[in-house]
Amino acid sequence: MKKTRNLSLSDSLGVTQWELLGGKTIPAKSFPRIKETGIGICSLTSVFSADSKPSNFPKLADLGFPDCFAVPYMETWHLCPWSGSEADAVVAQVLVQLHEKDQRLTPCGYDSRHVCSKLLAGLRKDFGMELLSALEYEFAVSKDEEPVTKGTHIYSPVALKKVETFCFEVSRRLDKVGVFIETIEHEFGEGQFELTMQPAKGIKAADNAFLYKQCVKETAIERGMSATFMCNPWGTVQSGGHFNFSLWENGENRFSDDSDPDGLSAVAKSWIAGMLLHAPAIIALVCHTNNCYNRFYEGGFAPFNICYAHEHRGSMLRVKKSRSSGVFLEFRCSGAAANPYLVLSAVVAAGMDGLRNKLQPPPLGFNEEKRIPTCLKDALDALEEDTVIKEALGEGFVEVYLTLKKQHDLPVVDLESQKAMYNLLI
Predict the structure, then answer these.
(1) The CA-based dihedral angle spanning residues 350, 355, 359, 360, taken in that order and rounded to the nearest 10 degrees
(2) What phi and psi, each to the nearest 5 degrees, are found at residue 172?
(3) What is the pLDDT of residue 155?
């Protein structure tokens, strides 16, 4: 049978608030025109809940939910090795920028990739530095609604054996789209795994995370399994999305200073101070469901202490050092279900405030004096009150975000309802 070529236009708006993959599939013969003009997509999608229920958002409703234009970022175009085989089709994929349907095609302020790109551009323009980063995801795999492994088997190659063909296939497929896996392991929880990625510069780190999650979920489906990035889908699983990062300028790691007793530069210290100051607000962006807060408990590995320390897993910011590239930070609060563009945005918005105001952190070391919000409501309240973070992200974006969370997330408290609502979260 002759193969047809279909191009999947993956819409960044679909992950704006809910980490949902959304978009339209475009036959190859139509793509050249759409590549130049974009394609219409209903603005209602920006205020959908995770289970596709619309929010009460008058600003869009009063306009009749007009279309936006989804215009491709052609630098993200790639053949998609996990799609099309059953339909005997070659599928490609491209991320898009959402624009208002006006004469100037103004970028949509509620598109999370646009928000992230804008902040990274500000980091380059105002400080001459670039973010080098990678998200480190844990996820859970089940078959017939049961975890594929039972018991605690952290780092066990025997437990990994049960799904190694799945993990190896994910690694091979991601390699084809330029996302390179460094390690593969069984994690602490039942059916819980982790494949770590190599770091990337700028927005590509978030794009890589987006592709990683899509590949994991779709490859699992092909094999009759289900993969979820919900933080707590069942008892023993507490899946995080740790964010490792450093700042670079002209090939130099701006976080490192060998003359400092702690190895931290003035840039690193101000960046840390900004993140500690704005921690309550940015938690709302990286722990965006009630389910995320199940990770935080006494004796667990998810930190709820607003502090920074060398190699301490109980601190919000873990200071680490690579033999080859120097100091980098690990932001440990982010849940696996978080939108990668919002993780980068939260970290950059808070860190840049530290740089601008030359903030100074408290002494390095683990302490329990200050804690992050313990529930989604408190985190949302903190975000609503933080004028610096709101201005950095855009007031319009934060307004939509808070509306969605208050109307759709806060009421969902029991695990079964959370599973039903968040099943499609990438």
Answers:
(1) 100
(2) -65, -45
(3) 87
